[in-house]
Amino acid sequence: MGKIGVSIITFPFLSFSEALQKIESLGFKAVELWTEFPEVWKLDFNGRINLFKELLPSLNFDLSIHTPITDLNISSCHPKIQEISLKEIEETLILANKTGIKKAVVHGGFKPKEKPFNKLNKTNLQPYLNQTSNGIKQILKQGEELGVEILVENAEYDEQHKILRTYDNFQTITKEINREFSIVYDISHSLPAGIKKSKEFITKMKHRIKEVHLSFYDKKTKKHHLPLTPQSKEALEILNHIKKHLPSSPNLIFEIYNLPLDVSLRSNALKRSLNLVNCSQPSQGTSPLAR
User: Fold this and answer.
1) Beta 216-218 vs 223-226: how paired, if at all?
2) Predicted local distance difference test score (pLDDT) of residue 284
3) What is the dotted CATH code of the domain comprising 4-279?
4) Domain spans of the chain?
């Protein structure tokens, strides 16, 4: 694997500066930024640029940035909703370009859950896949123009209204836009699909996975983004499958935020999760993952 890092959304109750300093103090070398981080979100565009330029150069992090998803839907069949959603993502790509961030994470959207739309479209994803294809194509073009690599993340497998949660969804989009694109593989999102399907996705998409997100999914509570525990054997098995089969060395980003809002508790959860990752590595002379 590449560098190990943390999503800044793990510490949303700290200031932007404090969150970055906390992640640095824990020894991590990569950070996934969010424009929806509370302090950043309330700023206008120029304010965000100034904040990033003030704080990021002094920290030696490998950076990616998560584009906004709250109340947005790039898969929407409502033209204005899709237009606004794509505009918000474009603004984040411009922010990345102006502040030296080279990678941006993007999500697909979703089909409506509300009746009667859910019944009408229960088995017909195609209109939403078409809209997703159009949206991803536009985002990829913007990324190329701005020098920002677009990484498309797999959605939670158990949330069936979401687009881009399966291998077939990704293949459909790839064929419709007639080009491949890079992927963020989120292990927690994939776990409800089971070990077999998760490994098949990874094996088939191994040359496209450029970043990995790691946390635990609890099947009983159906909660994502939990810290790893000794019971997280499936998550660690998938991670080791990634390390074995990927031709490249993507960064590994912990996304652990389904916890009480406590700095010490979340910091300790990250430490324990990292220790489990290092202890789970194959014992073939492989050294622990470097942070």
Assistant:
1) antiparallel
2) 45
3) 3.20.20.150
4) 4-279
Q: Are strands 103-107 and 251-254 parallel, antiparallel or unpaired?
A: unpaired
Phi-psi region of 20 (alpha: psi -120 to 50; beta: other; left: phi over 0): alpha
DSSP string spanning the chain? ---EEEEGGG-TTS-HHHHHHHHHHTT--EEEEETTSHHHHTS-HHHHHHHHHHHGGGS--EEEEEPP-TT--TT-SSHHHHHHHHHHHHHHHHHHHHHT--EEEEE--B---STTHHHHTSS--HHHHHHHHHHHHHHHHHHHHHT-EEEEEPPPTT-TTBSS-SHHHHHHHHHHHTS--EEEEEHHHHGGG-HHHHHHHHHHHTTTEEEEEE-EEETTTTEEEEPP-TT-HHHHHHHHHHHHH-SS--EEEE---SS-S-HHHHHHHHHHHHHHHHHTS-TTTPPPPP-
Dump pLDDT digits (tens) for 154-211. 999 999 899 999 999 999 999 999 999 999 999 999 999 999 999 999 999 999 999 9
